[in-house]
Amino acid sequence: MEKSATFGSGTLAAAASVVVLSRGFHPIVLAALEVGETAGWLAMLLAGLMSASMYGAFSYWTRRLPSGSLDGLARAAAGRLGSMAMACLVAGLLIHHAGLVTRETSEMAVSAIYPHTPQTFPTTGLVLCTLFGAWSGLSSLARLCRGFLALQLFAMAVLLAGPVAWGNIRYLLPFWGPGPAILIGRSFLLTSMFSPVVLFLLIAGGSVTERSRRWWTGCAGIAAATLVLAVIKIVLAKAYPLPLGASVTFPLHALARLITGGRFFERVEGLWVMLWVFGTACHLSVLMHVAAANYARAFGMASHRGPLVTLVLVMTVVAFLPPDQMQTLSWHEGAWPFALAIGYGLPLSLVLLAGLRGRLGSNAA
Amino acid sequence: MPAAPVPTSTSEVYAALKEALHYPDNVGLTVRHLRLPAEPSTRVLMLYFAGLADEAQVRDRAFEILEGVVLTSATAPGKNVLLPETPASAWAHTERELPAVIGHVVRGETALFFDGARHVVVVETARHSEHPAGTAQVYPPRDLFSRHLIGNLALLRTRLRDPHLVAEPIHRSGEEPGQTVLVYINGRADPEVLRRVRERASSFGEERIRQGHLAGPHARFGLIPAMVETRWPDKAATALKEGYVAVLADQVYMTWLAPVTAPLLLYGPMDETIARPIASVLRLGRLFVAITVLVAMPTIVALMNYHQEMMPTPFMLALAAVRENSPLPILFEVMVVEGLQELIREVGFHLPLRISPGTAVVAGILLMLVLVQSGFIGPLPGVVSAAMAFATTGIQQYDTIYVLRLWRLAMLFGAGALGFYGMAVVLFFMAVYLYQTDSFGVPFISETGIRFSAPELVSSWLKRRKEHGEVRHLR
């Protein structure tokens, strides 16, 4: 993270929203339909709210730490070695996540739009975007996200309004899907999808100018984006009922195909490709930046740019590891327990440890 | 400004002028110190803005009043000449409050401060507006900057009428001060921006400034100019009102504005003089033109190569029929057309001004006709290219056109390689570049430029209200 990176809490919230909303284009969000069945939208909403609450709690507990970031918490709880271990774990999770998102995106592009193009082409494009975006620094990235959010929300609104006539509202019944208790239990598993954004907020929180407001703006960013995703889930489930809905590999692309405005305005899903690629590039750049910045801080490096190239290189290797799209999705879902452990378990453990050692006060770290 | 009485002693007048009009660091603000041969001897300060006030009127009218005072003193010795509050002249009146006096001075009148008097004589000396060097355009304004610094400052002061408008001389070692001035509205321009612009202007010699080096590439990778050039006083005045800083130099017929932000590139000279809704539409139109110039041709390439499904069936069939005999891929066709356009533009620069527009148009039409009729390229790239060539005239800043053309080339390669996916990748690179670029410490996509909330978006991109309280500043 560059030394001068500072921005307002609203910008942090906007960046968090973009990171969450950009995942709406990927097939991994169909997991919500798998866990919540007809109440997939509710599962997504519950998971988002749980993540926002957990981020809010972490942020509140660590409000007196001078550095205001995850690295400061790790140093207060477990010293320099603990901070290094935390940085390695976080970088590992984010690299794994970013690599698989890169691969998912390029596989989707190849399967849905460019059947004659080798998947290395779109993958390379995204890797270059990630490197350039993450290299540029967090303040410019966060402001870019803030500018892009307006466009993204507008495009999603069109995407929701376009196919509104399709489907049947009864496809959303039964309201609680598998039942309230099971739904809540499964929704907790789904919070792993939000662990990268929670880590982003915890690491980037130190750059926010209004520290007192960052906890609720971060929560609001996640919650608002989750609400949009939940509405998308409703429209998707209405148009593509279960079990068909769970097998749609490219959910928002499929929704965009339903938009029609007469003879001269149909099959416009190509326009959303730009939005989807741009959003994914923002998502990857932000996450790889915070991974590199956190790593650099923990290891006492002057700039995030030192480890960034190496981390992006590892991310590229991860992107090329799965043999196909199905394996990519499977690898992603397989990492849920680790995402839960590192995204929520690790900060919680650090908070507890720092609390037990009496280092959560204003004089700590 | 609170209603303060007129200062009565010379030292008080100087202090008040320093406070209200930034004397003596305000180029063009003229203060003449006179001692009248009256009885008793009276000191007078004559105050006016050079360029705003007509020097001939100052000579005739103000000095006529002073002569009257001297004559009165001579005919009635011992009488206090300062008592009459109504000068015996149709061009003068008296004021008792300082803000009113300052208001008259910034409108081009001349103020006469008599030592010991509780009122000031204001003489009508304002220069009436002329339109000597305008261009033949439909909308006002018709004024352009000339080569005279004082005259150019007067053009700005005529538009702004703001006592806080400061024309600060730039000091350079070995050069006479006052040849280059930094113009800003005190209290609106950001002090840090001022400091940086002052440093940059001081580091350039007079000759280099005259040659236009001040606006040279400065930002990262040099794609964004360091300062925006303009020949239009109205554009400069609009920018100054919003907190920008201007640099003016003697013998140069333009001014440079800083910091460079995205909204500044959309300002047009007529924005302040035409109806607000029309000006708003024009600004949005310029933004639309810039986006169209950037993406129209790459979109054609992406549609024809990768996203044919987006085209309506009749349109696609018509296009296919046209391209049936085309020997080249669409990307190659587009590159040929773009290359030709650049060639014609370059030729236009090197021909004499009187024949270059005609030659460029005729050459463009002929070449395009021959290429299309011979079947070497299809008509679509030619039509879009010609439309974009016209569209670029809607962009106010010529530097911007160069940057857009360069980026369009990158977009064309992106579209040729991966359709909309490739365009998005290139757009991301551009967006990151623009968001990390700053000009004198102010981000190019600045807080004044693109805002997230709808009201801020509207108020920043659309034309601002003229009232001071509703104008958002760069700070």
Entry keywords:
heterodimer, A: 365 residues, mainly alpha, Amino acid/polyamine transporter I, 14 helices, 0% strand, B: 475 residues, alpha+beta, 3 domains, five-stranded antiparallel beta sheet, 15 helices, elongated, disordered C terminus
Describe this structure as you would to a colleague:
The complex is a heterodimer of chains A (365) and B (475). Chain A has 365 residues and is mainly α. Chain A has one domain (9-347): Amino acid/polyamine transporter I (Up-down Bundle). Chain A is 70% helix and 0% strand. Chain A has helices at residues 9-22, 31-36, 40-61, 70-112, 120-136, 138-161, 180-190, 195-204, 214-239, 251-257, 269-298, 305-320, 325-334, 336-356. In chain A, α8 packs parallel to α14. Chain B is of the alpha+beta class and 475 residues long. Chain B folds into 3 domains: 10-123, no CATH class; 149-273, no CATH class; 276-444, no CATH class. Helix content of chain B is 48%, strand content 12%. Chain B contains 15 helices and 12 strands. A 5-stranded antiparallel sheet of chain B has the order 1-2-4-5-3, with helices on both faces. In chain B, α4 (149-160) crosses α7 (233-241) and α11 (330-350) crosses α13. Chain B is elongated and about 105 Å long. Chain B starts with 9 loop residues before the first helix and ends in a 14-residue tail after the last helix. The model of chain B is unreliable at 448-454 and 463-475 (pLDDT under 50). The A-B interface holds A 10, 14, 109, 113-114, 117, 121-122, 125-126, 128-129, 132-133, 136-137, 140-141, 143-144, 146-150, 263-264, 266-268, 270-271, 273-278, 281-282, 285 and B 302, 306-307, 309-310, 312-315, 417-425, 427-429, 431-433, 435-436, 443, 445, 450, 452, 457.
Tell me the β content of chain A.
Answer: under 5%
Please bin the fraction of helical residues of chain A: over 70%
- End-to-end separation of chain A in angstroms reads 19 Å
Percentage of residues in DSSP E strands of chain B: 5-15%
